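User: I'm writing a short report section on ligand binding and want a predicted complex to refer to. Could you take this sequence and adenosine-5'-tetraphosphate and write out the structure as tokens? A short remark afterwards would be nice.
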Amino acid sequence: MSDTAPPVYAGPTRVLSGIQPSGELHLGNYLGALKKFVDLQDQRPFLFVADQHAITVWQDPQKLASQTREIAAAYMAAGLDTTKATIFPQSAVRAHTELAWIFNCVARLGWLDRMTQFKEKSGKHKERSSVGLYTYPVLQAADILLYKATHVPVGEDQKQHLELTRDVAAKFNHDFAVPGFFPLPDPLIEGPGARVMSLRDGTSKMSKSDPSDYSRINLTDDADAIAQKIRKAKTDPEPLPDTLEALKARPEADNLVGIYAALTGETKLDVLGRFAGQGFGAFKPALVEVAVSAIAPIGERMRCLLADPAEIDRVLAAAAETASAVAEPTLDEVRRIVGFWSPRGR
Ligand code: AQP
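Assistant: Sure. The structure tokens for the complex follow:
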């Protein structure tokens, strides 16, 4: 390292992530995000329900609060222990939006112009998209850096946004001459569940907003629905191959093998080692078995938790206080660094 390299962040490790209450959670959200949160829970993660991100596209105000409780219920039903994980609504900690404004003045238009998710979500109607949808990655940088998070478990679709968070952190540290103030957080993306594809089209991402319910397995689907969706999943007539290279050329087969591997904690090569040479008539029932045993109990637990919304509200309110107690001091420091007036300072 040269003598002039800026000091790196030397604070503690912190895991943080979030999920939007913008519709029913699906297997992609589970394997790309939720399951990783559970695996990391001994690191006491901060996990928010991203209601401010959700409203970047229209959300029915009559439903948004109940959707927020549903995501909180999904976190708990997936196995998160609320004595370890801090599960809170993003909008309950007002510092997120205040820091996002400051970061709007740090991030560059050219960076946002490169964000592929905005291009995909706005499609041909860029002019009619909300400004919030465009600046969403800046709010995401604030969500992460407000807590000085060092590790962010996400699906692969969030990789580019995490890179932007690192750029915002580095530019803030540089422009305000506070080297090492913000960490440059690392995304935790690896593994076969990082990009789960639609069951109807192996080239597009499994997504809440896909109009076809058969494209995804919802966390609230019961055993019959899960089995039916896997039985109807698009495949090809060939038996499963014995190499990853041959699998890669067959997107639907690759996706189903990847889902099996992510659910059982194996590699795709392990799965091929057992199923190579067999057709989907043999593979799909095996996949149904592992998917039902992993997903159906989560839906059942969600239904139980949602029967007591007051208890979910209690968890969210207590966690919002815990989160605020971490966020507010960071925001106070940022306000001082930026030079905002305060009765105690300049
Ligand atoms: N298909 C996926 N495979 C793996 N991970 C995924 N994630 C989403 N889809 C997949 C991960 O889930 C986390 C929460 O996502 P989100 O709800 O905040 O936003 P999203 O990525 O926009 O989710 P959807 O389902 O695709 O919603 P719509 O249809 O509204 O765009 C993130 O970590 C994400 O990577």
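A remark for your report: The mean pLDDT is 96. Residues 19-20, 22, 28-29, 31-33, 50, 154-155, 157-158, 194-196, 205-209 surround adenosine-5'-tetraphosphate (CB under 6 Å).
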